[in-house]
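hiii so my PI (J.) wants the whole complex modelled not just the main chain, which honestly fair. so below is everything: three entries, each one labled with what it is. i double checked the lines twice but i was tired so who knows lol
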Amino acid sequence: MELKKSRFDPPRSYIRGAPIILWLLFLVVIPLIFTFAMSFYSSEGLMIEKTFTLKNYRVFFTDPVYSRILFKSLRLALGVSLLSIAMAYPLAYMVSFKMVRGRNLLFMMCIIPLWVSYLVRIIAWRSILGNRGVINTILLAIGIIQEPLRIFLYNRFAIAVTLTYICIPFVFIPVYTSLEKIPRNILNAASDLGANEFSTFLNVVLPLSLPGLITGFIFSFIIALGDYIIPLQLGGTQGIMFGNLIWSQFGVAFNWPFGAALGFVLFIISVTILGLTAKFGSTEGGFLSE
Amino acid sequence: MSSVKGSRRLERRGVSLKLYGLLIFIYLYLPLMVVIIYSFSPTKTIVGMTGMTGKWYVELVHDKELLKAVLHSFEVGISAVILALIFGTAGAFFITKVRFPGKGVFRALVMLPFVLPGIIMGLTLLIFIKNLNISLSMLTILMGHVSFTTPLVMFQVSARLQRMGPNFQFAAQDLGATPFKTFWYVTLPMIRTALIGAALLAFTVSFDEIVISYFLTGTWTTLPVYLYGMLRFGLSPKVYAVSGLILIFSLSLILFMTKYIGRSAEEFKVKR
Amino acid sequence: MDDATAIELQSLTKRFDEVVAVDNFNVKIQKGEFFSLLGPSGCGKTTTLRVVAGLEGPSDGTVLLENQDVTGIPAYKRNVNTVFQDYALFPHMDVKKNIFFPLKMRKISANEAEPKIERVLRLVNMEGFEKRLPQQLSGGQRQRIALARSLVNEPAALLLDEPLGALDFKLRVAMQKVLKDIQRNVGITFVYVTHDQTEAMTMSDRIAVMKDGRVHQIASPDEIYNDPETAFVASFIGDMNFLSGTIESAGEKNAKAVVSGNTINTRKLKQGIRTGEETLLCIRVERVEVNPPDGKLDNIIACTLKRIVFRGTDYEATCQFDDSEIRAVVSATAWDHRLKEGDAIHIGFKTKDVIVFPKSEEKDVIKYSVEAV
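here's the output for the full assembly
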């Protein structure tokens, strides 16, 4: 209705952005710059040598130990994301298409685990998988085994199970949102034109829900890639992932410059992947809308 | 075409899907149930739960360190929410009312602390803090919390502002309200529920936050950090009791929030 | 000092980057006048209104309210109020608080405000609705409350931005009457923006017809209908035939033009049109008669009846001669029912009903003149 307005407001109105720009500067931009700078320092014992060096990056890219950890983490993140999708997508589909009454309640019930304490959920899994945990207790009680199995905890399996558990809501929400957006009369049209439910799903629902699916996948991937607490708590000796590799640089290993470099690598990877969401995923982060 | 056999097949598919859904639900909720059940276990270990007792919960009340940690979580949570409301709302107005180049990039930057793995935010802030020679304390944890709560507020509020449209402010000004009075009498009441919803959400996230907080904590700890410390001594029913309380508290917050948001979203259904 | 002028625009221009939204608008709107801005979407009428309201500032020119220069003064200090198309009633306030709002901004106390609020509610026939919320009202009711809210401060003028656009037809016609009655009773100046020419024609004292930022004509509905100044105005209002013709001769009182071999007597030519020039000839469809009696009309053309459309109250006959077409609209009672498509007929019209425009204006012509493009 209106003619094209001038595209930008005069710079003097930018003053209204002062608070958020300052916020951005001090909590995001400057810390990132400092981190980037630190990745070029080196650590001598307990001191940090502030001379420029590429040692950190060189070590990371050349020493196979580190790249192996990174790839292990990437593979794990991929696996976890796929598993999460395998669980969250059907769930979302069920709630969106198969439930008539109580749909809102069901939706809330899928979301609640998300908001109900990350740490508590980790504690829960530690207790389920441990020697004296739920699984072992049940198996012992039934008599299938004589001694508790150690295979459930302190390994990659435990990490995967717990990470998937954490990631499912993050996949559920964008997938559900995009499924809800599909107008129901399109499904009627498809069936009217001869498609059974599976064909409709394959040719109509799946493509239309793809943006949500991609968004969910990416969120899950990022979370799984960067997590350090789960590998630390549940991974045992097998559980060195990229996340707790970085963590140890700021803890026991005390090599902040190296940690900064690793952190920066993770940052670049994350930002790149997140950029993919912007391109291919759905536009609104579902869990941020009211 | 849709023979009896065919439609029965359709029915079955619906049923098998629901079965699968049910399994996943069990997967989602079982761990939480386990925690709550174990918190009532009378033995120090989990094996052989012989009955129920509330004694671990009672012990919590006497744990001074724990209570201090809870208090700290509230302090940080409330402070972070207040700051997030200020920065986030200012940012929301900036991004919806002012036209400037690179809005997409700007939004993405503000979103970063919320979407990036916590470890990145934790370490960047830690390095920043060390460079400024600030020691780890409530202030540093607060910085961390403000970083991820602000985007929450900003996006909730800006979404509401977008839905509102600019005409209410125009009408107010047209009827004689100065820009400030327009904000106070018209805009603010209309975004009130978005603010409250965002505040509750931000508080919930902050209360539970461990990843970034663990990086930025000194001796001053929040509840999750304290709980994490408790894990070092192994799992005990006391840990479960704390977990149980956290579960119940978070759950009530969520339920309260959805009821409140749901009700007022209806109230303000504006004709578009 | 012109005491009767409510609003004056002097050389008002508004640019958005390279686009000129309003181009050199000059007008004096009188006190108590119902003045309409009419034109298709994007013609600049809403922008003009917003500049008068103070919600936008002009790029050039001056705005005067009651002879005071208000160009630099922001909206909240100006004594004009706007009724928006979507009413913009504050959803978190009930009807009474909504209406109280402008009074409150003027620091009028609640006690003083009571009678004013009641009076204005009575004016729009909405007494008893004080406690209702906007969401609980129907479209027409919201419209009236929006009107009441804008009137309660007794502004110098009321600006209305397509206020009836959201209403369905019957309601819209009813509200037109209501608005006109209120305007006359209160005696307040109305500046009314619309793209609906019928609305503008029935309600206004004067209309400014706009296209692409330019004002084509400011005149009474009668003049706009019978003496359009440009081809655009001619085409935008009512239903007009457009023919291409070359000027054969031009005289003091009228002129002659040739259309597909037929010589047509036209009105006196406007300035700048010369003999030999190709031009646009316009004739209102209702001024074209089918098979008129001999000698009655001075322009007669022989043609074939190409199509007949029955429209309820009248018949529309499309008549073809050579490569030109003319449509005639004849009332149903006067229609000769023996006529069939394909018949050879004569059509006729008076000299004074043929208006000539330069060919260059053809691009501005709206083909189906009722609604905006």
